[in-house]
Design brief:
GO terms for molecular function: oxidoreductase activity. With about 250 residues, the chain is α/β, with parallel strands linked by helices. The chain has helices at about 20-30, 40-50, 65-80, 105-130, 155-175, 190-195, 220-230, and strands spanning about 10-15, 35-40, 55-60, 85, 135-140, 180-185, 205, 210, 240-245. A 7-stranded parallel β-sheet has the order 3-2-1-4-5-6-9, sandwiched between helices. The protein has a two-stranded antiparallel sheet with strand order 7-8.
Length: about 250
């Protein structure tokens, strides 16, 4: 096992093969972190890593406990510790109201967005407890939908509301171990997932109309995550909301 110097921090980023996860991983590497890139598609993870010497590519399905344990074991074998987890892997799920969604689709969305986040947080907390008094920091990727759902997104909205409870519980239970947990709720970054809900062409609104919504660069969202990660151990950022300027969030409906 390699011991990591205290000045070099080790981060795990899930969903690192695309979107916000990819950009966060790249910005962390540029900032001097050692970063484990986790996701289901190895080729995309390698593209994110771009042969960086401090990047560790670990294919992982966060819904599988064995995969998650393998991920964190690989990180500890390589660098000896875990300082930051960006709990980012997620799916938007089906476009359906509660009376239309199938049980299969409901369970699949919860498995990734909620159970997967719990499994990764649990593994990170176990690693961080072994590092007392240094502890560590967990950043959960929530969503604007943790505050105000979009129409026909029942499974996604429920998981993101539940993420807030997970965040607060981890923060509370981690206090005695130097472990902090915060949540970033991001609205309308310019990523592929926005295309799936039609933000650029006309997203469904609460009144049944469709509206082209503004987006903002994924690099700016990643900078907000990095700000949370870079806070000193004496401070914990519990909640951050970052949206595209002018998106229908405040006053949505």
């Amino acid at each position: 096992m390699n011991n990591t110097p205290s000045a070099v921090r080790v981060a795990v980023v899930t969903g690192a093969g695309s979107g916000i996860g990819r950009e966060v991983a790249r910005q962390m590497l540029a900032a001097g972190y050692r970063v484990a890139l986790a996701g289901r598609r190895e080729a995309q993870l390698k593209e994110t890593a771009d042969d960086h010497p401090e990047a560790l590519v670990v294919p992982c399905d966060v819904t599988r406990q064995d995969d998650v344990e393998h991920l964190f074991d690989a990180v500890r074998r390589r660098w000896g510790r875990v300082d930051v987890l960006f709990n980012n892997a997620g799916v938007f799920g089906p476009a359906a109201s509660v009376d239309e969604i199938s049980l299969e689709d409901w369970n699949a969305t919860l498995a990734v967005n909620l159970t997967g986040s719990m499994l990764c947080a649990a593994a990170a907390v176990r690693a961080m407890k072994a590092q007392v008094p240094q502890g560590g920091r967990i950043i959960n990727n929530g969503s604007i939908s943790a505050h105000s759902p979009r129409p026909r997104t029942v499974a996604y909205a429920v998981t993101k509301h539940a993420m807030t409870g997970l965040t607060k519980s981890i923060e509370l239970d981690g206090r005695g171990f130097g472990i902090t947990c915060g949540q970033i709720d991001i609205g309308n970054t310019a990523t592929d997932i926005m295309d799936t809900i039609g933000v650029g062409a006309g997203a469904l609104q609460a009144d049944g109309s469709r509206r082209v919504e503004p987006t903002f660069p994924v690099e700016d969202a990643a900078r907000a995550v990095l700000m949370m990660a870079n806070m000193p151990p004496s401070a914990s950022v519990g909640s951050v909301v970052v949206t595209a300027t002018g998106m229908p969030f405040i006053g949505r409906g």
